[in-house]
Structure formats: C-alpha cells, structure tokens
Amino acid sequence: MFFAQLPFIIYKFSTIGVNENIWIGTLHQNAGQISVLFPLFLISIISPWFLLYGRDFKHVIIFTTLIMILTFFAIAGEKRATIFLVPLWLYLCFSLLLLKEFLNNKQFFAAPKAQALLIFFILSLGVFYGSQKLIPSLNLDEKVGGEISILHVFKYTRQYLTRDYIDPLNNPIENIDQDKGIQLGRFAVIERSFSYISSQNIVHFLFGYGASAMNPSYLLGPDRSDVAYQNFGIRGAASNVVRVLFESGTVGVLLKFFWFTAVFIWLLNTFLNKSNKTLTFILFSAFTSHCVFFFDFLLYSDATWCFDILSPMYFLLLALAFRANFYMDDRIVLKNFLKTHLKIY
C-alpha cells in the first residue's frame, strides 16, 4: 500500500506541484489531512523497528530513505504540520525507548542510541528545511524554493492556528456567510466550540445535539460542507473532539477521553514491562500509532475516525498487541504465535 503511493506522488509533484486539494496518492478520498496522518502512522511503525532492530549501515539507509519518502508524501500534500510533526514523532519514539531502558536498569545511553539520536536530529533538520523550501506559505517568498525564515514559520503557525474570521490570512473582504474560505484557525475552532456548548442548556451541554449536528450529509445539498457554520456559527478545520462535543456533548467527550486513556495506560505499562523484543516491537508500534489517533482526535481533524483509511490498520495493530500479550511470553517467538493463534501459515 505504501510503495503504491510513490509513483503517483512523484507524478503529482512534477506536474501539479505542492497542492493539498488534488490527489493523496491512490487514496480515494478528499481529506487532505491524510497526507500527513498516513506518513505519521507509518513512522510510528518504522521508527520502533529501527530503534529495536537497526544494527548496521544497511538499516540506516533503509530507515532514512523511508522517512524521506514519507516526508515528501506529506509535503506534496501541502501539509504545513509536517515541519513539526515528523520530528516530534521521531523524538517521541526515541524517548519511549530511553524510558523503557531506564526503568529496566539497562544501559541508559549506549553508543547505538547516540547514533540513532544523531540520525533523528539530521532527519529533523532535513524535514524542517525541506518543508520551508517546498511549501510556499512557510517561506518568505510564498513559492516553491523561496527564502526560508525560522521566525516566519513560528509567526505564521501561531497566526494560522489562532486566526479569527477577520484575520488578514482570511482576506475578509467578502461576506462571511457566502465565502466559505473565511475560517477560524484550528485552536480557535476548539475554543469557540467549548465556549458555545458551555453556554447552552444542561441537556445540550451534557449530550449535544445528536448524530447529525456536524454531519455534512449529501442530503443537505450544495451547502452540506458548511453545516457547522449554519448550525453553530463555527467554520474551520475541526478536530474530532469538536464533532463529538456537538453530537454527544461533554459526556461523549469524556467517554472518548476515558477510552483513549485506558488504552494509553495499558499499552504503556505493558510495553515498559515486557522483555521479549518481538512483543516489545508490537506494543511500541501500537502505542505510537495510538498517539497519532489521539493527536488527530484532540487537535487536528476527524479524518482518522470518519474515513476508513487508517482505522482498519490501527485497530488491527491494537488487536495484535492485546492478543500477543495474552498468549505470548518470553519463550514464544512471533512465528509460533502467528501459526498457533492467527492461523497464518
């Protein structure tokens, strides 16, 4: 699935350029956020593999090549979050392994870990530089290959995430009711959503407005994509927590937080206390993938939950982690586990 995307991404970049609205590899949907969530999900599997099994120069080449390809996938989709999220996920994986080894009284920072940290640092610099150069809005000239500025990146990011309807980024010269391009920033959407629901009566505050409140159903006609603005006066890229808040209220949000937290605690506790390398890899990948879904739920979008692109792989990975932990002790290798319990021959 991953390598099938590569020729399409290269063709898109060479013919269309950096664009978030056209082609996300071969993935048949139009949620541009998948352009960065898909790479993050794969990084959540590739990085644990490299940290646990990377031993020689060949592994370094394979790992760095895959990270570069995944980063290019996100940049070609014009996902500005790439500049921060890819390095963040690399360091998240590294920190988790250090924590495990520290708690298990192993050598805390051996030479292989120093090598991995150096590789992650170099990759992070490459991602930061490449994102600024290739994504127009992240450089001063607003074009591919424009002049880079770290100060501009942080200033633009703050403005983009917190912008109001009248912010200059929106070019608010048209009627806000007619121009759907006038939107709130992601953080502003979350803040206004919680402010709105907290001012409603107790029933709506606790249980929301029902399952159709944020649903852009085709039955609503040409304005279906603007249903949140029509119902609640909120328009912008909304994370899944906003949808849950309006459709099932604070009770729904708390229940989903409880589920996320329960899975977090189980995965982390089991990961930190297992010594079998194969089981550690499965739990490691499941935990970091869980972080991707939690980040998307809380701050980014609802693409992981409303489009069946990543969710089948995610729940398969969780199921594998739970089942492997139940049947697999330190004397069982993965081959026997798969043959005996998953019927894979």
TrEMBL record:
Q: Keyword set for this entry?
A: Membrane, Transmembrane, Transmembrane helix
Stretches that traverse the bilayer: 34-53, 60-77, 83-102, 114-131, 253-272, 279-300, 312-328
Identification of the protein by name:
Oligosaccharide repeat unit polymerase
